[in-house]
Amino acid sequence: MPRSTTLNLPDMKITLFAMNGSYAHSSLAIRALRDALQTAGFADVALLEATLRDRRSEVLSKLVAERCEIYGFSCYIWNIREMLSLAEDLRAVHPHCRIVLGGPEVSFAPERFTALPFVDTVITGEGEEAIVSVARAARAGEPLPRLVVGTPDPHFAEAGIHYRVEEPTASLVYYESSRGCPFTCAFCLSSATAGVRAKSAELALAELRQFEAFSAPFTVKLVDRTFNFDRERAKKIWRGLLSPEYTKCYHFEVCAALLDEESFDILAKFPAGKVRLEIGLQSTNEKTLAAISRHTDAEKVLAAARRLTEMGNVHVHLDLIAGLPHEDMASFRRSFDAAYFACHVLQPGFLKLLHGTALRRDAEAYGIRFSATPPYTVLETDCLSFEELCRLEELAELLERLRDRGRFERALDFLLKRLPSPFDFYDGFSAYLREETGREVQKISQRDLFTHLAAFGAGLLSPEDGATFKALLRQDFAAAEVRKPPVF
């Protein structure tokens, strides 16, 4: 439901700029700000999206070509360096424009950015009301404040989906049915704000139905930090999405420990491929979970994830974080092995020490050393050396190549169900590839990876199982490639 327009100001051109990770992504933030500005009477608001892979000169050229009065930059840890570089050059070419920074990366310790000579204003926190106040000041010819502290958007519950049918649609779009999180995980920015504001289940379903006007198939990813924080509300939305009138794929980040029997029953009714669930396990080490204020039972989370995976119709994604307090290589290995067969995709991430989080504040107490530049990735801890973290990065890359892309599915499943530790397999195969090829995992061709996996994997099995394993590898190769398979 769009909020009512209260002003009808003369045009002033504003461009809102986002830099996404890939072409598959789209920015919800700049669309929400666009709608807030246009509702307030600023009709001439353009959106400009680029990716980190785009040629920098082309992106700058597009920014300059807008020739507008205000440029709003949406800043995150993954794009802040590129954003600042582009903003500085934009100011050099277009010295009379106003440059406004907003987003999570500038919302904490904003003095890092307010002192920059090419930045006019930094907005912290929620931006809908703040960007309107900045635009009004610019329209009136007033000097812009260096810092604007954003306040919760009072119109959040009536804001709508922000995407428009007439505009290009990426394969992944975002929808926000709630803001805030009930949990206080020490590594997460959501812990810096208190409380949750949520749209009703009825309103969320009505807004999700609006995506049906878009003919293209895509995934709607709900950005709610914990979608099922209110169990009954979550179940109402899931029940509604069971209707065949909802045809998209829906991605939710959930707390598995909050799933009850009725939740499982509802989720079991979805057709395969319609629902994706992301579950943050992070670790199975009780001391680690306590240190990061994560008060969930890891065994209960794993049992729920395993049950969902075994249902077969819901895609389950489990997250782990390397570099957390009290977690050494042996502890991470236990977490990895416990999670591996409890999901479809296991994503080992690496701790980022974000400004505004408790873990960044307490990093020294845990012996955590991290990069001073974004994305502030952990370098070593008292429990994990730099070299061990590098090993885990190689393991994560190999996991993505072998399992996540689905091109080794038959052979890999056969192999790992006959080995005592999935972690030891990936760690050992990573070391084998490094010694045999001297190349990074991502630089090894698909065909060569099949050949190396055949040699390494068969060596871990009995002769009979080894022969079956190679036969399954041939089937995987035939399903993924059109070329003649290598001789194993």
Percentage of residues in DSSP E strands: 15-25%
Q: Which stretches of 5+ consecutive residues score pLDDT under 50?
A: 1-9
Terminal-residue CA separation = 60 Å
General form: globular
The CATH topology of the largest domain is given as TIM Barrel
| Shape-level CATH architecture of the largest domain | Alpha-Beta Barrel
Number of domains: 3
Sheet with the most strands? 6 strands, parallel
For the CA atoms, what is the radius of gyration? 24 Å
How many E strands?
16
Question: What would the keywords be for this entry?
Answer:
TIM Barrel; globular; alpha/beta; single chain; 488 residues; six-stranded parallel sheet; Rossmann fold
Q: Describe it for me?
A:
With 488 residues, this protein is of the alpha/beta class. The chain has 3 domains: 14-149, Response regulator (Rossmann fold); 161-384, TIM Barrel; 406-488, no CATH class. Helices cover 39% and strands 16% of the residues. The protein is built from 17 helices and 16 strands. It has helices at residues 28-39, 56-66, 80-93, 111-114, 128-139, 201-209, 231-241, 261-267, 286-291, 298-311, 329-340, 358-361, 386-404, 409-416, 422-437, 446-458, 463-480, and strands at residues 14-20, 45-51, 70-74, 98-102, 121-124, 147-149, 172-175, 178-180, 196-198, 219-222, 249-254, 275-282, 315-322, 345-350, 369-370, 378-380. Strands 2-1-3-4-5-6 form a 6-stranded parallel beta sheet, sandwiched between helices. A 6-stranded parallel beta sheet has the order 7-10-11-12-13-14. A two-stranded antiparallel sheet has the order 8-9. α2 (56-66) packs across α3, α14 (409-416) runs antiparallel to α17 and α16 runs antiparallel to α17. The radius of gyration is 24 Å and the shape is globular. The chain starts with 13 loop residues before the first strand and ends in an 8-residue tail after the last helix.
